[in-house]
């Protein structure tokens, strides 16, 4: 998964458009929204927050615990509105992560299934067929659950 600098700025603005947060909260919120697939470092977040502050898209204020609390400004909200950015941008950005992981799993299944089919005894082939049949049934049940 590739995260571009511009994406970091957009993601921070989107999250700050929902509520004010300090850097660690932003890191945790991003990790939560990406199901842990991306947990940015402080070295990625704090410089981005400073650039957003320089552009007048956010303000940074020190709270009683000596943390920098970031809040979106009207200019920041306008930027989100003009660029049609909302939480869906974040969800869409990281949905590819799931697709990639699922594609990787399917590729491994295909690869090992071919190896077993070509190189193994009929007992292993029968075990493979049972595993694939069971897996297909589980996926089908998952698909139809709640429909």
UniProtKB/TrEMBL annotation:
Report the residue ranges that make up the Transcription regulator PadR N-terminal domain in this protein. Answer: 12-80
SUPFAM superfamilies registered for this protein in UniProt:
Winged helix' DNA-binding domain
In terms of Gene3D superfamilies, this protein maps to: Winged helix-like DNA-binding domain superfamily/Winged helix DNA-binding domain
Q: Which Pfam families did the record assign?
A: PadR
Q: What is this protein called?
A: Helix-turn-helix transcriptional regulator
Where does this protein come from, organism-wise?
Rosenbergiella gaditana
């Amino acid at each position: 998964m590739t995260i571009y600098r511009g994406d970091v700025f957009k993601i921070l603005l989107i999250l700050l458009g929902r509520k004010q947060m300090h850097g660690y909260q932003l890191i945790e919120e991003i990790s939560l929204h990406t199901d842990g697939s991306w947990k940015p470092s402080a070295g990625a977040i704090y410089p981005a927050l400073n650039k957003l502050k320089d552009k007048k898209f956010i303000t940074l204020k020190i709270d009683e615990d000596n943390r920098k609390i970031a809040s979106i400004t009207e200019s920041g909200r306008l930027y989100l509105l003009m660029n049609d950015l909302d939480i869906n941008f974040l969800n869409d950005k990281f949905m590819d992560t799931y697709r990639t992981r699922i594609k990787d799993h399917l590729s491994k299944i295909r690869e090992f299934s071919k190896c077993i089919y070509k190189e193994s005894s009929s007992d292993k082939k029968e075990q493979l067929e049972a595993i694939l049949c069971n897996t297909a049934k589980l996926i089908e049940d998952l698909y139809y659950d709640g429909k």
